[in-house]
Write a structure and sequence with these properties.
Layout (H helix, E strand, L loop, with lengths): L7 H14 L7 E5 L6 E6 L9 H12 L8 E6 L2 H6 L20 H13 L4 E8 L7 E3 L4 H10 L4 E3 L14 H7 L4 E8 L4 H23 L16 E10 L6 E2 L8 E2 L4 E6 L2 E4 L4 E4 L19 E8 L4 H5 L1
Parallel strand pairs: 2-3, 2-4, 4-7, 5-6, 6-8
Antiparallel strand pairs: 1-3, 5-7, 8-14, 9-11, 10-13, 11-12, 13-14
Helix pairs in contact: 1-2, 2-7
Bound molecules: zinc ion.
């Protein structure tokens, strides 16, 4: 389900065709397996509309599973988070869907979609959410608040070695809750994987497909043996390399600009020039570490960002001194 010629409208139609064959209670969501299953896996793609890289592998997986649909042990849900934003090629249409999961005001397009998706997410015994970054990544990485069972699933997926984490007591964003955060709040494991730079690629296809095969193969085998699926704690040599945010640099204003070509997980040293706060004033790395989410907004002819900017211009992460289990477990 992936070739260099694959485009988004073909993919969307291919997904919707399967959603018509295997419908769930909410739109843009494929449901497979037995309704009576004791274990339910939910897989999310494109909660941010421009992060489409997991969709081809998800379609391949749906096709694989549907051949044995009558004999699956678990129940599976595959959803497209924000189809309107996928069509528009944007992160979101009205507001960030991945900050919408505990809002009081759900009048926006994404607020309404979060209510639909919550009906699926509340069933999840495991939620895997595939994302991508705006800029290139030195390698894929997991990112979510530390939660022991989620960590064991992430290590089992074998999709990335690096993990950016935080104490579960710290919210990811003051704007609102992410889908994975919402599932963990219900006491269930949820994993977010950043596959690499946003868009379709062979790398995103392979990483998504192999991680889904690892998860689903394990779930089916454990249920075959009448065991509740839960991967063991990885041995120390297979532990993920854990990082925490060491510095957040708030968006300094519309004259600010990063130097070109900064990537996720690029190493920087304290005092290194990262760009300018405004012409003539350098933006320096306040600490040594690895860059995370460097921001390059679209700009007009005068160099001004086309859209209003908030949040951080970038973050810097550093390795944790101890395993997060010891720090916050
Ligand atoms: Zn995302």
């Amino acid at each position: 389900m992936f070739s260099q010629e694959t485009n988004i409208s073909t993919l969307l139609e291919a997904f919707e065709q399967r959603a018509r064959l295997y419908p769930s209670a909410v739109p843009h969501c494929v449901q497979l397996g037995s309704k009576d299953a004791t274990f339910k896996v939910v897989v999310g793609s494109a909660i941010h509309g421009n992060e489409t890289g997991s969709i081809p592998a998800v379609i391949s997986m749906i096709d694989d599973l549907s051949e044995d649909n009558g004999s699956l042990n678990a129940q599976y849900f595959f959803f497209l988070g924000n189809p309107d934003a996928i069509r528009a090629g944007t992160r979101f249409v009205e507001r960030d869907l991945n900050r919408c999961f505990d809002l009081k005001d759900n009048t926006s397009l994404e607020g309404k979609r979060s209510l639909e998706l919550a009906k699926i997410l509340e069933k999840a015994d495991l939620f895997v959410d595939y994302h991508q970054t705006n800029q290139p990544c030195t390698f894929p990485f997991f990112t979510f608040a530390y939660h022991e069972e989620s960590y064991c699933w992430a290590a089992h997926m074998n999709a990335a070695e690096h993990f950016v984490t935080r104490d579960m007591k710290i919210a990811f964003s003051s704007e609102g809750m992410c889908g994975d955060e919402w599932v963990r709040r219900n006491g269930k494991p949820a994993v977010t994987l950043e596959l690499g730079k946003a868009g379709l690629s062979h790398h995103a296809y392979r990483t998504t497909l192999s991680s889904l095969q690892r998860i689903i193969g394990f779930v089916e085998t454990e249920l075959d043996h009448k065991r509740s699926p839960r991967p063991i704690t990885p041995p120390a040599d297979l532990d993920l390399k854990c990082f925490e945010v060491a510095a957040k640099l708030p968006w300094p204003g519309d004259d600010a600009a990063l130097r070109p070509g900064l990537e996720n997980f690029q190493e920087v040293v304290q005092g290194e020039e990262l760009g300018v706060v405004r012409p003539g004033e350098k933006l320096l790395a306040p600490v040594s570490g690895f860059l995370m989410f460097p921001k390059y907004p679209k700009r007009d002819a005068q160099g001004r960002p086309v859209e209003a900017q908030g949040g951080d211009i970038l973050q810097i992460v550093r390795p944790l001194s101890q395993h997060p289990r010891t720090l916050w477990g």
